[in-house]
Write a structure and sequence with these properties.
This protein has 290 residues and is of the alpha+beta class. It has 2 domains: 170 residues, no CATH class; 100 residues, 3-Layer(aba) Sandwich (Endonuclease, Chain A), CATH 3.40.960. It contains 11 helices and 12 strands. Strand 7 and strand 8 form a beta hairpin. The longest helix is centred in the C-terminal third of the chain and has 16 residues.
């Protein structure tokens, strides 16, 4: 694939590109008379690398942009989020959301050639912009991919007094779990954890009568042998569907009651909590039992 095309004012004019277009959101000025077309970048990462060359040296990708780069369970935001050291004049570009932050060296990492806020800083930044359930999903994902650990997060939150969102960040931190395999699993676990039901266990092992692990449930309650499964679109494929049939049969054969949820159930906790409560009650759970 050809590298991104660079333009001078003269070559842009010959290509039919006006000065106004060169100043628009589709281009980045790399030097006084050198502009690159962002749409020509090979991928999102290369686009961000090109953009970084036009930003101040202290610029660091942050918030949702950093979360997506670090592998969290979020879609990259339409506008790129950048954090800069506080200053009188802040760079303004249509494609950027600029935040002024007094970041320490520990709050910045270089990930695959890009300066991004650390996982702990990214988690804290997002705490003021996403729901508690979504924040847990982000934290779970950052832990799962190895960018975040509990000690690092505790250290960052300890020095975050008066930071916007820190109350939510601190409340959600103890609920993070790297065993969550997806955003939907994290959402379901959070909704159940803040309800009046017992906290579910992630990745519950299902064993046969000889004690061999034959399957794993996304979430579950060993004491009452209730499992919760999230079926995403990937479960509709032929091979995965066949594997799921085997898993669910093995779970049922072992005496487990399996509740299955899909994308339509991610709009809120109501159906998840009410159906799980009914399942637990049918298996002998009563309020106050833990």
């Amino acid at each position: 694939m050809a590298p991104p095309q660079l333009f001078t004012t003269a070559t842009a004019r010959s290509a039919g590109i006006t000065r106004a277009q060169l100043r628009g959101p589709g281009f980045v000025r790399l030097a006084h008379d050198l502009v690159v077309r962002l749409d020509d970048a090979i991928d999102v990462r290369e686009r961000l690398q090109l953009l970084a060359t036009a930003l101040p040296a202290d610029a660091v990708y942050s918030h949702g942009t950093a979360a997506a780069l670090l592998g969290a369970a979020v879609d990259a935001p339409a506008r790129i989020h950048v954090a800069l050291t506080p200053r009188r004049v802040v760079p303004q570009r249509a494609e950027l959301v600029v935040h002024q932050r007094g970041l320490t060296a520990a709050d910045v990492v270089v990930h695959r050639g890009l300066r991004v806020t650390s996982a702990a800083q990214t988690y804290l930044d997002l705490a003021s912009t996403v729901t508690a359930a979504e924040l847990v999903a982000v934290g779970d994902a950052l832990m799962r991919v190895g960018h975040l650990d509990g000690d690092e997060l505790a250290t960052r939150l300890q020095r975050a007094d008066r930071v916007r969102g820190v109350v939510r960040a601190r409340a959600c931190a103890p609920r993070l779990n790297p065993l969550a395999q997806s955003r939907p699993e994290s959402l379901l676990r959070y909704w159940l954890a803040v309800s009046d039901l017992p906290d579910p266990e992630p990745q519950v092992a299902v064993c046969d009568r000889w004690g061999r692990t034959v399957a794993h449930g996304d979430l579950g309650y060993r004491r009452w042998k209730v499992l919760l499964e999230y079926d995403g679109t990937q479960h509709a494929s032929g091979d995965q569907f066949d594997r799921d049939v085997d898993r669910y049969s093995l779970m049922a054969a072992g005496g487990w009651l399996v509740l299955r949820f899909a994308r339509r159930h991610l709009g809120g906790p109501g159906p998840v909590v009410s159906r799980t409560r009914a399942a637990l009650l049918s298996r002998g759970w009563r309020p106050g039992l833990g």
